[in-house]
Amino acid sequence: MQIVPTLNFGGNCREAIQMYEKAYNGKISCIITYGEADDPAYNPLLKEGSKTIYQMEATPYSSCRVVFVDKFGIRWGIMTEQTDR
After folding, report:
1. Cα distance between residue 36 and residue 57, in whole Å
2. CA 66 to chain centre
3. In principle, which of 14, 21, 43, 54 could form an S-S bond with 67, CB 3.0–4.6 Å?
4. CA atoms within 13 A on the CB side of 6
5. Are the beta carbons of 71 and 50 closer than 8 angstroms?
6. How much of the chain exceeds pLDDT 70, in percent?
7. pLDDT tens digits for 42-54?
């Protein structure tokens, strides 16, 4: 069985990812924040060769949620917190 985590952070993502990188002796080559993901320059990179599982939409628990599998087979679940509609 393969376990694929979805990580959500309350504004300290970069700090957390850097700690995991150090703890597991890994190398993070790209971090895209929610703010940066709105930049059209990033969208083609994520969409190229990907398969959408759930289209970008509002849900009862998130103002915006999308789930897709990128060209490397990594499943991404991205969502924002719920805001007033």
Report:
1. 19
2. 9
3. 54
4. 11
5. yes
6. 69
7. 566 667 788 888 8
Q: Return the SS3 of 17.
A: helix
In the chain, what's the furthest Cα-to-Cα distance? Answer: 42
- How many whole angstroms separate alpha carbon 30 and alpha carbon 13? 13
Answer yes or no: are the C-beta atoms of 28 and 46 closer than 8 Å.
no
Contact 78, 66 (CB under 8 A): yes
Indicate the pTM of the whole model. Answer: 0.47
Closest CA to 34 of 51, 13, 57: 13
Written as one string, the DSSP assignment of 19-69 is HHHHHTT--------HHHHTSTTTHHHHHTT-EEEEEEEEETTEEEEEEEE
Distance (Å, whole) CA 31 – CA 64: 19
Distance CA 2, CA 30 (A): 23
